[in-house]
Structures are given as C-alpha cells and as structure tokens.
Amino acid sequence: MESFSLILAMVVITALAFDFTNGFHDTANAMATTISTGALKPKVAVAMSAALNLVGAFLSVEVANTISKGLVDENGIRPEVIFAALVGAILWNLLTWLVGLPSSSSHALMGGLIGATIASAGFSAVHGGALVTKVLIPAVAAPVVAGLAALVSTRMSYGIGRKSNGKAAEKGHRAGQIASAGLVSLAHGTNDAQKTMGVITLALVAGGALAPGSNPPTWVILSAGLAIALGTYIGGWRIIRTMGKGLTDLQPQQGFAAQTSAATAILASSHLGFSLSTTHVVSGSVMGAGLGRKGGVVRWSTARRMAVAWALTLPAAALVAAGAEAVTRLGDWGTWLVAAFLVASSAAIWKISRREVVDHTNVNGSEEPAGVITQAIAAVTPPPASPAAEGLTATIPAPASASVADPAPVATPPAAAV
C-alpha cells in the first residue's frame, strides 16, 4: 500500500509537470500575435494570459471527462500506465519547444495515453469511437475552419475600415486584439488545463482513490489551473517567435481576426467536450489571417515543418510512452528508472536551449527566413528606389543615353613614374 501510494503521488506530480510544460508550450497560442504586432509588451501579455488560464480552468469539466472517462477503459489501467503516458507527452513537448515548433500538447498527451494503454492492456482498451470523433476529426477540421473564418474576418475588417481614419482604426484594432487575446487565454484554460485534470482523475480512479465515473475533485482543478498558469507566465518564447514572426507578418487587423476566430472555435469545442488542439486552431487562424490581407504572404516552409510535427506528435509520444510502460512493468525500480530518464532528458534539453537564449527581450528580434516562393517573388520584383539613389541617377546619366556623335571624353591616367 505504501509503495502504491508513492507511485500515485509520483503520477500526480508528473501530471502537474506536464501541465506546466503545456502552459509555456502554448503561451504562443494566445499571445504571439499580440506581442508581434506590439499591442502588448511581452511580459504584460504572458501575465495576462496566465491569469485568464487559471480562471478558464474553473469554467468547465467536459474535456476532463472526455479524457478520464471516454478515451480509454478505466478498468485495469494501472497508475504506472498513466505515468508512462505523461513521460512520452512531456519529452515531446520539450523537444518541439527546443526547436520552436508549435506542436500540440493535447495530442502529445493523447498519444502518450494511447501508446501506454495499448502496451499494457491491448488495443481493446482504447475506445476507437471516441478517439476518431473527439480527437482525430477535430484535429483535421479545426485548423481549416479557424483558418477560413480568420481569412473572411480579415477581409471584412480591411473592407469596413477602408474609409476610416488610419490611426484611429489601428488603435481600435489593437484594443480589440488585446480583448480577443484574453478570450483565447480563457478558452485555453477551459480546454487544455482540463486535460491534466482528466489524467489526474483517471490516475485516482486507477489507484482506487476515486470511484469510476467521478468528476475531477476541487483540489485537482485548482492545482491543474495553477500549474498551467505558472507555465504560461514563464513564457515559451521560442514558439512565440515562430507563431508571431515565422508564419506571416501580421498587422493589428489580422491579429484581431485571427484571435477572435480561434477563441470562438476553442470555446465551442470545450462546450462540446472535444479534446481540441489549441495549437492547431491558432496556427490555422494565423495562416488564414495572413492570406486575408492583400499582399500578405504565408511562409509555407514554416507551415510544412509544423504540419510534419503535427503528424508525428501522436505516434512519437505513443512510442515513447509504450517503451516507458514496458520498463515500469519490471517493478518499482523500473518506475524509478523511467523517472530518472525523464529528469535527465529534461535537464539535457534545457541545457542545450541555453546555447541560444530566446526571451522577452529578443522574441521579436528576428524573423523566420523566407521560403522558396517568397524568395522567387522578391527576385523578380525590383526594389523601390531610395531618395539618395534617385538623386544619384539624376546627376549621372545612364550609359545607354550617352550621345554617340558626342562621346564623353575619357580621362587618361598619368604615366607611372619610372
């Protein structure tokens, strides 16, 4: 009993650690566009997002119930299985954060849980219907729907504001962008914080501390909300740079349209209990907003790398979790070995990240290199002449315009002294 209680406590702590990584991994979802357009200063933006993530965690438990009751069979699942699932999800979060890719923390958790469950109890322990309808279909549909909504909203925004005063309209859009960013943060709390609540609840049911079918206790809701809020405040600056500068260059009108579209989709999915990836939704809305502005360019090279990361998230986390579950079956020492591997790997990833530090002081300092298409367009488009170049052209005529009948005298250099 003592050993079992220790393992259960380890699962709860590891789940809150995942929630922390989820917070700083997904800060970009709410605040990347707000920071990149200058609507809010970086530290103010992440503090606001953290507070609203905490509030959002108390608004609903539908997604938590999807995780704890709908995705896998509660009966026969050991706490070690959930621990292995969290190991897979945390390592994937940290690796994608290191390279600045906004992959889905939600799908990392889903993949880890599915992989560990299959390794422990077989494919029959996974509810295929819930996986398809509440995880896979929303993963494909959400970025498309949010992207189309953001594209239409951006064009409407520019169309309505065409005749308005430029400075006044820009100021209004910045205010709207701050409000919509807050809405995205609130929506993120209602969706992503609940996933950790669901995992902890599932562990408590597996450990016999809760009856099957129970809702998350209040202390679980509070601890999950605080963990994701703290992670959000730390700020995942590498991913914020990719989302804010790497996909497209956003103006306040586009930022407002992207965030409003994303918040609407996330809140609707939370109400329906869909375990939606906020990363997929926000990425789709940012690309849609980029295409919605006339002359806007999406950096498709970055979008392709993100799509590859999305496709790999579920299977990669599942494979790591399945391997971790196999080690935990060796006994308590196997579980401690997995825990040591998680701590050592996390420390190594953090140490590598210190070679090139990205924080609030330089998050807007560089942009993603332009893709092949953007470079080709730039190559055939002549750059605008600067005033200095125009003046120089006026004083020095082009060679083609020189008169053949009256050629300009050519200066002969003096003979070199012998």
Short description:
The chain has about 425 residues and is an all-alpha fold. The protein has helices at about 1-35, 40-55, 60-70, 80-100, 105-120, 130-160, 165-205, 220-235, 235-245, 250-270, 280-290, 300-330, 330-355, 370-380, 385-395.
Mean pLDDT level: 76
Largest sheet: none
Q: Which term fits the overall shape?
A: globular
Helicity range: over 70%
**Proportion of residues in extended strands:** under 5%
Oligomer type: single chain
Please compute the radius of gyration using only Cα atoms: 26 Å
- The count of DSSP E runs of length 2 or more, i.e. the number of strands, is 0
Number of helices: 15
Specify the structural class. mainly alpha
Primary descriptors:
single chain, mainly alpha, disordered C terminus, 418 residues, globular, 0% strand
Question: How would you describe this protein?
Answer:
This protein has about 425 residues and is mainly α. The protein is about 70% helix and about 0% strand. It is built from 15 helices and no strands. The chain has helices at about 1-35, 40-55, 60-70, 80-100, 105-120, 130-160, 165-205, 220-235, 235-245, 250-270, 280-290, 300-330, 330-355, 370-380, 385-395. α4 (about 80-100) packs parallel to α13 (about 330-355). The longest helix is centred in the middle third of the chain and has 41 residues, at about 165-205. The termini are far apart. Residues about 365-410 and about 410-418 have low confidence and may be disordered.
